[in-house]
Automatic annotation (TrEMBL):
Keywords noted in UniProt: Carbohydrate metabolism, Kinase, Transferase, Xylose metabolism
CDD domains the UniProt entry points to: ASKHA_NBD_FGGY_RrXK-like (cd07804)
SUPFAM superfamilies assigned: Actin-like ATPase domain
TM annotation in the entry: none
PROSITE patterns with a match to the protein in the record: FGGY_KINASES_2
Lineage of the species this protein comes from: Bacteria, Bacillati, Actinomycetota, Actinomycetes, Kitasatosporales
Organism of this sequence: Streptomyces marispadix
The family this protein is said to belong to: Belongs to the FGGY kinase family.
Name this protein carries in UniProt: FGGY-family carbohydrate kinase
GO MF term set: kinase activity
Length: 496
């Protein structure tokens, strides 16, 4: 039997799996890491100390326990995105990587580029309005604010493409990741908008565009020494983590929607044709000929981790205590905008709000309110997707947070069933599957056998009625507090 290696670089941890070509999970491993936030609104990763170190350690650990009589047939990678890692002549990182939409430093550049090209034209060509998620403004920020870095910059990478470069020497980027590089990529045309690339980020080499499951090279002798992966092993291009996770869950056909429970909550709805909407992102899919409507919350699991650290209680205890409380956390309502918010409000200066606090409320109430807040955020995004023309027929729950209480609360809040696959280990499993597809060891339709349906989460009508009432208050809480939290955010920026 042939083995496949999949490794994903996440926001707060990296995960790896070793599978057989029939999808059997042989081993898995995790590495925790942190982000750096040197100033308010800045979120960064050190490419060497996070991306490459995590990859090499995970690969070595997983391969050390591989059956001696089974060979490694392919490698797949994924990671957070879209990110911007400036690199020099020798591919050396010139500064820490600027992360995806949780990094909000380029607000001025978003406004400048929107004014230059016009929102309607950007939407027509790229499919998405410019926000903190877009990569073009981050190029402009580096060029304007760090000219010494930009002057040495020759190439640039995301997490997955950097790993591919280190493993194979290939300078490529997958079509999906490129479709989040607004306003530099033509969504329908499937290529770089050369005149805008040269205006926004002149003088750079641009990566060749490929599809995530395409084999783009083989592991070099140097990379083999660093990782333990045999030289000559095929490597596929990979993609952004959420789309690898969609592939893992089989959510790749029109009507499928993936909910990724992680540090942030991410939603991917597969559609037959682009349906641009200013509240969402319209992107290329994981496979050629597919498109997606995507949404992403700036925080979800990040809030539960914050509460865990703040209270000193472990997740199991907090979950057990929160599960004993009724819907609504006995009169608490939270806005989950602890790091600003992405879709559908696109407000980097939004902030978290907890309404209804009394002296009788404790850590369990806050924890349940946090889970409910993310569920209300999911419902808000699903409503925007429907209004945009999204096709929501099958919801699949994936990610490390796809646990009983959280998924049940989301189902009760939205009123929609969720399918939970056997493996929810996430994007790393999808990486292995994409490697299997790219090397001819599996077909796209084989995902049903690789990762079959395990259970269905069904809404409880009584709890759903309670949440219907609370949702209306949730929708009103942001506009009623926006002026105040914006003033507080301004103070935070000044203090930073």
């Amino acid at each position: 039997m042939t083995l496949l290696l999949g490794i994903d670089i996440g926001t707060s941890s990296s995960k790896g799996v070793l599978t057989r070509s029939d999808g059997h999970l042989v081993a898995q491993a995790v590495r925790e890491h942190t982000t750096s936030s040197p100033r308010p609104g800045w979120v960064e990763h050190d490419a060497e100390q996070v991306w490459w170190r995590d990859f090499t350690e995970l690969a070595a650990e997983l391969l050390a326990g591989a059956p001696a009589n089974e060979r490694l047939g392919g490698v797949g990678v994924s990671g957070i995105g879209p990110c911007l890692l400036p690199a020099g002549d020798a591919d050396e990182p010139l500064r820490p990587a600027i992360l995806y939409g949780v990094d909000t430093r380029a607000g001025d550049q978003v406004a400048e580029l929107t004014a230059r090209y016009g929102q309607d034209e950007i939407m027509r060509r790229c499919g998405s309005a410019l926000t903190s998620q877009a990569l073009g403004p981050k190029f402009a920020w580096v060029r304007q604010r760090e000219p010494e870095v930009y002057g040495r910059m020759r190439r640039w990478y995301m997490a997955s493409s950097y790993l591919v470069r280190r493993l194979t020497g290939a300078y490529v980027l997958d079509h999906h990741s490129a479709s989040q590089c607004d306003p530099l990529h033509d969504l329908r045309g499937g290529g770089w908008i050369e005149e805008w690339c040269e205006e926004v980020a002149p003088g750079l080499q641009w990566p060749r565009l490929v599809w995530p499951a395409e084999v783009v090279g083989e592991v070099t002798a140097e990379a083999a020494t660093a990782t333990g992966i045999p030289a000559g092993t095929p490597v596929v291009a990979g993609t952004v983590d959420a789309w690898a996770e969609s592939a893992s869950a089989g959510a790749t056909s029109p009507g499928d929607l993936m909910l990724m429970y992680g540090t942030t909550m991410f939603l991917v709805d597969v559609v037959g044709e682009p349906v641009p909407d200013v509240r969402l992102w319209s992107t290329a899919g994981a496979y050629e000929g597919t498109y997606c409507l995507a949404a992403g919350m700036a925080t979800s699991g990040a809030i539960t981790a914050w509460l865990r650290d703040l209270t000193g209680a472990d997740y199991g205890t907090l979950t057990q205590e929160a599960a004993a409380l009724p819907p609504g956390a006995e009169g608490l309502l939270m806005l989950p905008y602890f790091a600003g918010e992405r879709t559908p409000v696109f407000d980097p200066d939004a902030r978290g709000v907890v309404a209804g606090l009394t002296l009788r409320h404790g850590r369990a109430h806050l924890y349940r309110a946090a889970l409910e807040a993310t569920a209300f955020g999911v419902r808000h995004n699903l409503a925007a997707m429907r209004e945009a023309g999204g096709d929501l027929r099958r919801l699949v729950a994936v990610g490390g947070g796809a646990r009983d209480l959280w998924t049940q609360i989301v189902t009760d809040v939205t009123g929609l069933e969720q399918s939970v696959p056997r493996h929810t280990v996430g994007a790393a499993h999808g990486d292995a599957f994409l490697a299997a597809v790219g090397t001819g060891l599996a077909r796209r339709e084989d995902i049903a056998d690789w990762n079959p349906h395990r259970s269905t989460v069904v809404p409880d009508p009584e709890r759903s009625r309670v949440y219907d009432e609370l949702y209306e208050h949730y929708l009103g809480l942001y506009p009623s507090t926006r002026e105040t939290v914006h003033a507080l955010a301004a103070r935070q920026h000044a203090d930073g």
